Amino acid sequence: MSFKAFSNFMHNKWIWVGCLVLLAYLSPYVIYGEDVHIRVHDNMDSNIVWYKVLAESGSIFTLTDVPLPYAIDGLPRSALPSAFDAALWLHVLFEPITAYTISQTIMRFAAFFGMYLLLTRFIVKKETTPWITVGVSLAFAMLPYWPSGVLSIAGMPLALYVFLMIRKYRTEAPKHTWILLCLIPFFANFVLSFVFFLAVIGLLWLIDWIRNKKWNGAFFAAIAIMAGIFVMKDYLLITSMFFDDSFTSHREELELSGNTFERSYELAWENFLYGHTHDEAVQAYIIIPVILIAILLALFKNRQPKWLFTLFLINLALSFWYAFWYWEGWQPLKESISVLNTFNFARIHFMDPPIWYIAFALALLILWQLKKVGKVLVAVLIIWQSILLFGQAEEFKYREVNTPTFKEFYSEDLFTSIQDYIGEDPSDYRVVSIGLHPTIAQFNGFYTLDTYNNSFPLDYKHRFREVIAGELDKSPTLEHYFDTWGGRLYMYVAEHGKDYMYTKNKNEPIQDLAIDTDALKDLGGDYILSAVPIENAEDIGLSLEETFEDQDSPWEIHLYSLL
Known about the structure:
By secondary structure, the protein is mostly helical.
């Protein structure tokens, strides 16, 4: 892209409007700081803390899978993000909420400009109205992405633009495409999404080779370069999975294929209409109806909306693949082929959002051709979808459901007072949490025997199960959840179910806690941080030391010691 072309690109007033809307979308992070409401699930209860503890661990770079003592008395280093993860280095350089804000900004603007470049270069004509090119790009940038994914989903249109440019121009492709090619992997997750994206790009290269009978070396090199960077970035995860015989992950006992055929069928349509919590495209109310109407209009005019119809069917197929990956009929095969158990092939559904918004742009283009009424309709639909998505910004969405703010969730002052009361170095004792996520204690410097991670030793899972076996026996749901997945090594309570946030306004006592405190002591446990009182504490070998509150914290923590 020449300087003149870049200048023209940036002087497009509609792009500036889109940028201003995105800045407004991101403004709560700056305005509220630590008082902002953000997602808890797979965010504050996990990834943010993983980055923080790793940034402070002194073990960012290591050639071997060393144990980190902050969790389960030795969590494998490979369970935490790569040393080459850009989001990790944001946490090294900045406070967690600042790092989070920067990460969100990178995600949103990469999604916006990536989709815009893809649409204008390869999907629709440059002369197409900015209502479609800028509007669809803006909507895509405001999706409620899984926050810690950064460019894992949001960056796919940008990556596709890069590969298509190199495919078309080969060695003459603009320099910025090669730079972006090398940068994207540091902000994206290979195992969760880009392994599937690169597989699709590789298939495209293979089809080109067969069809044209010519070797596109630049295109092949681009695929190899990105794949190579991802492998280099995740070297520790790869070596621990394939070359470390001393480590058996708890993932070896995963049993994710438990759904009946009927439930799998229902889940397929649920995903098609509403998406997965990690890749919501908010497609049910506007995008899908618009696509269907556009297909019918095209057919009525004797046109063949080949690409629009194809993309629509691809997402339908991805939804069924995702849902039926959890069908019980797969389980015998998964038990005989280990990789089918340890690697989740259903995650190809992370490609849904880019496909939906490319299809949305193509559908709007058909509507735009309906003269004046079509142009008004397109403008209304873009504004409607954008308003809908703007309202799903984290501050609005999670304030409405009344989850704690960032500051409230971690409650640093409250947990500092608990540490001061105990009066020992946190590395000299071990705690577990009841009624709240263990990552809260980890964020505040406690060493925990419970945790939430993607991988940890299978042997430890078995030992931890002895502690909570009595509670699992009371609840078949919790027992199945722990035994067939178990990524959350939590102090499960049958009375609580899967609710892990008991505030001082919701802290009914546990009447009969059936944990094995001897097994907990064998693991090295010294204290329990409980968000609720335990009525039978003395009967099971616990002593209430003190209760802690802070006016700015939602938690009331009861500190129990093991007798």
